[in-house]
Prior knowledge:
Belongs to the MoeA family. This protein is of the alpha+beta class.
Amino acid sequence: MAQEVFLSNVDLNEAVKIYFNKLLCIKGEKENVVTWESVGRVSYSPIFAKISSPFYNSSAMDGIATLSTKTYGATDRSHIELQEGIDYLVVDTGDPIPKEFDCVIMVEDLINLDKGKVSIYKSAAPFQNIRPIGEDIVKTQLIIPSNYMIRPVDIGSIIAGGVNDIDVYKRPVVGIIPTGTEMVEPGGELKVGDIIEFNSRVFSAQVSEWGGIPLRFDIVKDDYSLIKEAVKKAVQQCDIILINAGSSAGREDFTCKVIEELGEVCVHGIAIKPGKPVILGSIDGKPVVGIPGFPVSAYVVMDNICKKIVQAYIGINNEEYTTVEVVLTRRVMSTLKYLEFVRVKIGFVSGKYIATPIGRGAGTTMSLVRADGILEIPQNIEGYEVGTVVNVKLLRSKEEIKNTLVCIGSHDPIVDIASDLFHIKNGKYFLSSAHVGSMGGIMALIGSETHIAPIHLLNMENGSYNISYLKKYLPNKPMVLIKGVKRIQGIIVPKGNPLNIKCLQDIVIKGRRFVNRQRGSGTRLFLDYNLKKLHINPQNISGYEREEFTHIAVAAVVAAGDADCGLGIYSAAKLLGLDFIKLGDEDYDFAVPKEFIDMDMIREFIKVIKTDEFKGELDKLGGYDYAHIGEIIEL
């Protein structure tokens, strides 16, 4: 089959407008549900009270019901006696008030006498302590309007108003068709070239969250006739159809042709990045959307287009995100061809929100997990310079962000362990880490972009760690160093060390493939320091320029056989079942501006790393000495 080309590069808002104008039939149907099962549903029509609440005059207190005129003149010095059955009736909270009485005196203001008599010492006003008819809800009063998402508290008022069943928008059934010959169900046997299919599960969760009913179909191979039959089946069973993957213009991208044959393609290609090759079509008047296969592209399309479609069926407008002004800590470049969605980490440091762009690849799923917000770069802007103040859409609340300890610097698995324990022990606090290397941490401290920076920077002249760098790069900023751990650095090699690598010289002499850490990392400095001592030219190492940003990533490359060896820490090798050749020990510490040391979050962090629980986790990893952990050194 001939390859398809993109039909357009339409502006996002224009594409949505074109699509919704085409689908004028999108009007959700109604269904009747019992009131107490309506939470989270959207009212199809306004709900009016059938009765008042209360629907009779009722007592607001435990006490006696009486006539207010009989209480006039009662004082502390001049009590008035009342006779039960003649002057008053004993009532409890909620009891009806007979028409001959117009007030309630609460039991605390009564003096009980013999023979059913009471004495009062306060006058009562008409309708004192009485809930009149309709005090809460008046018959025919509007309780909730149309197109209103019903909350638990609303259910109480609706029932109190005598309405026991209501019309709500019927939840649309959303058919989700994953496609791809290379796709494998979670838990299935994997071979090289296979991809675990998870997008459809994400779609299902999103559809449920938005108020629809997901119906996931089995994976369909990249076969035109199979995809066509799956789509025809979905159109019969569903209100909305989402086809995942195959929306682009490759040899096995059949989605556009299938929609064209069975219905109509309204838009193919929208000026967004990621997510450009989206297809907006219809079959039998039902929306059919072809969604790109890359996870981040899929997320952008789902959040900016499919969410609107689902919510149109259930009668609510697309919810707006909360936005916040942030200061960019990195330069962000874009293209004039697209509206680009950039994931960012957000922190609240020194009284301002700061945002750092994270992985921009369309397939980097963890960038969505780690993102706190989305920066939209308009189509007519080439990007933003560092320090620019921009608006971002929040994916987390401001309160969560303000309660997040920002940790930017060198990577070590112990930061992830500390992050988990930090939140477990202090439920309102979070720790957000960005792995940019030790020098990246120093730069973040200089720019007031982080609370804490893990560093292990080796002084190439005297072999000491960290302090000289803080004094050099932050001479006018009072700093403290929270002692962390001594850890073992060395060469990570496959299990059994099949190539018999024993030292750095072997990597050069035997021409082994190497994987390095990024420039500015403490590990890179450690390597360069040792190469200098051994008079080894880095250019003679095959793979010296190949960079990874974490120790685990280096270990993963070696484990996969893509490199013969790499430099990293012992715990990373152990985690992936690899062997290790020790080269030396180093100090992995936490640099903190002195102004932050008394912050509650910092104090709690120090408590966590000093716990036996944390130390026990370090023992499991291996390769750490924590004798001085948590000690504070003022510089």
